[in-house]
Every structure is written in structure tokens, then in C-alpha cells.
Amino acid sequence: MFRIGDKVVYPMHGAGIIEGVEEKEILGEKRKYFILRLPLKNMKVMLPVDNVETIGLREIIQDDVIEEVFSILSEEGIELQQNWNRRYRNNMEKVKTGDIFEVAMVVRDLIHMEREKGLSTGERKMLNNTKQILISEIVLVLEQDEKAIEKMIETSVH
């Protein structure tokens, strides 16, 4: 179970810090909620305590795993599906897992594709969102500036 002060990742939204636990009545039902602050989006989110497993909330990675993330970013990108719709769905499934390695692969592959042929509007938006998810977690792990982490990611992808 998570506690106040824990640094966690909320899949599809990014990393944040649990700032509190509150009991609220919503639609006639009393439930406990984690109050999660997402620093990069400057947003607070309420997550039902009893739904954290379903949501996929997890602790941020340990700093000794960062090297593996940057290793994935520096690998050659995989050949992506020609059909943009299928490619988009496959990438979305990876991001929804909340797994930082899957997120890093999506960022790497989309950056490669952007550099080679350019991206559609939808894929460019996915790249920006996915990159923010990745940056948000690395910022909390390394306790560094967002711009510095973004530069590290960009220079890691060859």
C-alpha cells in the first residue's frame, strides 16, 4: 500500500507524489482517495485507494534502473507497422501498461520515425505525451530539471 510522500507513476498521466489521503462522498458513495500531485502537468488528481491496482499505479523506478531506460532509448528503433492506425494502437497499448521500458520504446521509435519521415498530427501528439510521461518519472528519480532530462532523452536516441 502506498503512503503520503511516495513517488508513484499513474499510467497515461505520468509520475507524481502522493500528498494525502482523503475520504470523499461522490455520487452517494464514501471512498478513500489518494491525492496525487503531478508536478510536470501542475495538476492534482484524486485516485480511489481501492482502485490503485486496477489503475496500474506503481512506485517510480529505482535510480539503478535509469541506465537500462537510456540503453533502450539508444537502441535502433524497430521497423514500425506501415498502417498508422495499427501502429498507433500498438503504441497506445504499450503506454497503457505504465511500464517505463515500454514507454521508452515508444518514445524511441516515434523519435526515429519523426526524424526519418515525419509524424502525423496524432502520432506527434502521442510522442509529446509519451515523452512527458517518461520525463516526469526520470525527473523524480534523478531529481533534475525537466529540460535537462528532455535533452538527455533527445541525445540518447540515435
Written overview of the protein:
It is a single chain. This protein has helices spanning 52-55, 66-74, 84-96, 100-116, 121-142, 146-156; strands spanning 7-10, 14-26, 29-38, 43-48, 58-59. With 158 residues, it is of the alpha+beta class. A five-stranded antiparallel sheet has the order 4-3-2-1-5. The protein has two domains: 7-59, Thrombin, subunit H; 63-156, Methane Monooxygenase Hydroxylase, Chain G, domain 1 (Up-down Bundle), CATH 1.20.58.1290. The longest helix has 22 residues, at 121-142. It starts with 6 loop residues before the first strand and ends with a helix. Pfam families: CarD_C, CarD_TRCF_RID.
Features:
single chain; Thrombin, subunit H; Methane Monooxygenase Hydroxylase, Chain G, domain 1; 2 domains; five-stranded antiparallel sheet; 6 helices
What's the CATH class label of the largest domain?
Mainly Alpha
Can you count the beta strands?
A: 5
SSE run: EEEEHEHHHHH
Q: What is the helical fraction, as a range of percent? A: 40-55%
Protein name: Transcriptional regulator, CarD family
Pfam families: CarD_C, CarD_TRCF_RID
